[in-house]
Amino acid sequence: MANLTDSTVWQQLAAHQQELATRTMTAMFAEDATRFDRFSLQACGLFLDYSKNRLDERGLSLLLELARRTGLEAGRDAMFAGEEINCTEKRAVLHTALRNVSGNPVRVNGHDVMPEVRDVLARMGVFCNAVRSGEWRGHTGKAIRSVVNIGIGGSDLGPVMVTRALQAYQSPELSSYFISNIDGAHSKDILATLDPETTLFVVASKTFTTQETLTNARTARRWLLAALKDQSAVASHFVAVSSKPELAAEFGIDPQNVFGFWDWVGGRYSLWSAVGLPIALAVGMDNFTALLQGAHDMDEHFRTAPLEENMPVLMALLGIWYRNFFGANSYAILPYSQRLDRLPAFLQQLDMESNGKSVQRDGRPCDYATGPIIWGEPGTNGQHAFYQLLHQSQELIPCDFLVAARADDLDPEHHNILLANVIAQSEALMTGKSDEQLRAELQSAGIEGAEQERLFAHKSFPGNRPSNTLVYASLTPGVLGSLIALYEHKVFCQGHIWNINSFDQWGVELGKQLASLILPELAPGAPVGCHDGSTQGLLALVKSLSK
Ligand SMILES: O=P(O)(O)OC[C@H]1O[C@H](O)[C@H](O)[C@@H](O)[C@@H]1O
Question: Which residues form the active site (predicted)?
Fold first, then answer.
């Protein structure tokens, strides 16, 4: 493929950005009464308003042409068809098969994977029902009250994010905990609150070699055995989730209690597999199935909707528009939902581990920007922290606002205030404050003359800052499934257009390698190997301070 930046459409986009550079969104709304209808769409219970973007019809059609020119539709179909699109690891990418509730076969090298997928789901269902009904007993005969997932990265972020998001569906009988960090404080502080007799550990690791997870799992096992004093207790308090069941068995987990998944499921795309077991335990298998259904609905939308009405495609193209043509380095995820507080962290892994790359699929360097820095916090908290920068800094930071229209189980007074704030923020970012309005405000506050001039620039809001708003009636399991799949496919589309492999993560390896060399050097008296001056100095410092 010719270089992206040499293509005509890329150059047309760059030229069009120049034309739009001085046009305001407010003016575009004034010129077109149908803009909100034209630049919004609904799919799978999600309503996307993308009208508050620095984009017009021509810009959108050029972006759609970019998608077509890079063969996005064929790339998408190749993913769904189980082709080896993870070219560096020679793997298919089939998280969509995990939620394929259609009954249609999905083949990897001619082999239909759906019977195995359904088999694991069925085993998960039986296990969940046993634990949730109290039929599954701990070693001393008591029912399980606490479920602790031990995993990190993709074996943690999805389950923790979804479990928190679906708090309204959480069984009152069970509490969920997540231990991920190797920092001993994480396991210590959680274990201190738990009763070993009523605690179930789910050790989740695709590779079952991850240092943090295995160390935390050993610590949890020691804690359990210190209380229950019988090696056989492990069988009723530990289950595992892994694509390497033999390694889980080696760790001492009863093979009957190991739930498998496959190498064609990337870690950050794995919450739909048995990695979702802590979700299913928390909210029940029916709700987990509804989550899968919601994701499948989004898969179908992505697979079949024309590009111009395709929500993941449009979100991807908007991201590319700002990243490559406006130089936006970062992208903010702003859920107006406390229960979605881990969504930004989840999307950090999904997006940054997928698209934080600088070489193309064939190894040539990318001479264009790829994945942005993803960050965010729930509103309204973020408003009182970093929104200053969103409104008045020199940075252009596209944002996604997310909100449920209904209060559901929450206080309606709180919810109306929440809604007022999320709508106000996107309005404020776009419209800013006109000079006339600011003058009038200062005037009516009695601030005049030199004092008015002194404050004017500080209090001015230039506006014209873009955002998307995603609205859904309620954050049900189905809507959440669709929402997550929407972002997965957005990331896929961007990676495809940037011609990068979104499904490997070699960038995390070097630090792991060096940590394994440094670990033995930390032992008292152990020689320190050859490092740069800073690393030598830090090693010597921590060794002397820890004596
Ligand atoms: O599930 P595991 O094999 O334990 O891997 C956990 C995580 O660690 C790795 O370093 C990768 O960066 C992640 O993509 C992965 O999700």
Answer: 353, 384, 512
* Per-residue pLDDT, 529: 85
Residue 335 has pLDDT above 80, yes or no: yes
Q: Are residues 221 and 263 in the same domain?
A: yes
Q: Looking at the structure, do residues 178 and 269 belong to the same domain, yes or no?
A: yes
For ligand 1, is residue 207 a contact (CB within 6 Å)?
yes
ipTM exceeds 0.95, yes or no = yes
In a domain, residue 247? The reply is yes
Residues 211 and 278 in one domain: yes
pLDDT attached to residue 348 = 98
pLDDT of residue 258: 97
Regarding the beta carbon of 267 and ligand 1, being less than 6 Å apart is answered yes
Nearest partner of 65 among 130, 111, 4, judged by Cα:
4
Ligand 1: residue of 93, 179, 505 to mutate (most ligand atoms within 8 A of CB) is 505
Residue nearest to atom 12 of ligand 1 (CA): 508
Residues 285 and 309 reside in one and the same domain: no
Do 125 and 8 share a structural domain? no
Proportion of the chain above pLDDT 70, given as a percent:
100
Q: How far apart are the first and last CA of the chain?
A: 58
Query: Which structural domain range is residue 11 located in?
Result: 4-69+305-431+465-505
**Cβ proximity of 106 and 94 under 8 Å:** yes
Task: Tell me the two tokens of residue 495.
Answer: 């990676």
134 and 43 belong to one structural domain: no
Q: Are residues 357 and 499 in the same domain?
A: yes
**Domain tally, the chain:** 2
Q: Which residues pair with 351 in a beta bridge?
A: none
Angstrom distances, CA of residue 312 to CA of 59, 230, 487: 17, 52, 7
